[in-house]
Amino acid sequence: MDIYFVKAAIKSVIFKLQNLRAQRHAVIFVGDSLTARCDLNKFYPKYGTLNRGISGDALANLARRMDLSVYDLCPRAIVFLMGINDIAFNGLSDDDLLALYDKTFAEWRKRYATIPIIVQSLYPAADDERAEYSLPKGINDRIVKINAKLKMLCQKYWLEFANIHSLLLKDGRLNRELSCDCLHLNEKGYRIVSGEIGRLLDEYLSDSIDIYSKGEYPSDALSNFYAHSFVMDGRNYASMEGFLQSLKVKNVAKASKICALCGAKAKAAGKRHSLWKLTKTLYYNGTSIKRDSAEFDRLITKAYDALFENEKFKAALKGSENKLLEHSVGKDDKHKTVLTRNEFLAQLYRLRNKLES
């Protein structure tokens, strides 16, 4: 069996165990050995980080481990570096690698419309007579060309391209003073990389608000768990969470009881009603509404418009200023949640724009 698959299988078990206790909404570093060898606690001490690098991994294999490595963890930000193994050892063409980048980035932006995603350029290689690995001829020229197109893909998907390549370069190759072999970095090399990546993380995360019921104001007050009461169609709702969870219940009397709840109590009450995930059907005042319908979208907008009448909610929106809004604990599959992360954030941005107009 290929040694990579043995390593990947072992890592998958480790990741699965780690995920049981892993910090949610962390900054997740995804990559190959260049990531796996980096001591994130040492080089990025300011951030809650998780290392999801696997030695020998290639972009062609990444899709099969994305749930364990990223999706299950509700990332606050993603830092990504992969591709060198594909072209140096696996014989992948430049065009095929770029196609994989395109597919990967499209999927990430579909799932995560707003979180910062930092894509590192491919690092240079020390393809000289002392090279510890057998590298393809002209590898550094290929890396330069790939990086130029990789930057364009980042612009296409609104990702941050980090030009690390230029920081590690000397005479057209990887600076040997920054490396422990012809591909991997030493502590000095990682220190240079972390300076640039840390600067970008500071830029994004210091100017963002991750909405979370246990966060600091206004993060907590923008959460659906918060006790912002509102009235819609003559019915009183104690919170947006109470409204959303009530939609799972067809019986009007039972739904009314959930409407009077807030936070975790509302969520727990709704959790007992999971049949809608099979039927893809929710209920408002006893009337069925398909989860995927435009009618449902209009109902959600109507509810947030009603919530917008709550002065404390408006104050929290105003308090968010023009900062990037995130919701890393949110879910993305509309067949598993009444309100996805993107749907939630879209309503908040809409109302904040309304507040400013």
Output the keywords.
single chain, 357 residues, alpha/beta, five-stranded parallel sheet, two-stranded antiparallel sheet, 16 helices, 45% helix
How does this structure look, described?
This protein is α/β, with parallel strands linked by helices and 357 residues long. It is 45% helix and 13% strand. The protein has helices spanning 3-19, 33-36, 40-43, 59-62, 66-69, 84-88, 94-111, 139-156, 187-205, 240-246, 252-259, 263-271, 276-279, 294-307, 311-319, 341-356, and strands at 27-31, 49-53, 77-81, 117-120, 160-162, 169-170, 173-174, 208-210, 230-232, 235-237, 281-284, 287-290, 324-326. The strands form five sheets. It has a five-stranded parallel β-sheet, with helices on both faces. A two-stranded antiparallel ribbon has the order 6-7. A hairpin with a 2-residue loop joins strand 9 and strand 10. Helix 10 (240-246) runs antiparallel to helix 11 and helix 10 packs parallel to helix 12. The longest helix has 19 residues, at 187-205.
Q: How many separate helices?
A: 16
Q: What radius of gyration results from the CA coordinates?
A: 24 Å
Share of residues in helices: 40-55%
Question: What low-confidence regions span 5 or more consecutive residues with pLDDT below 50?
Answer: none
Main sheet: strands, sense, barrel: 5 strands, parallel
Mean pLDDT: 92
Structural class: alpha/beta
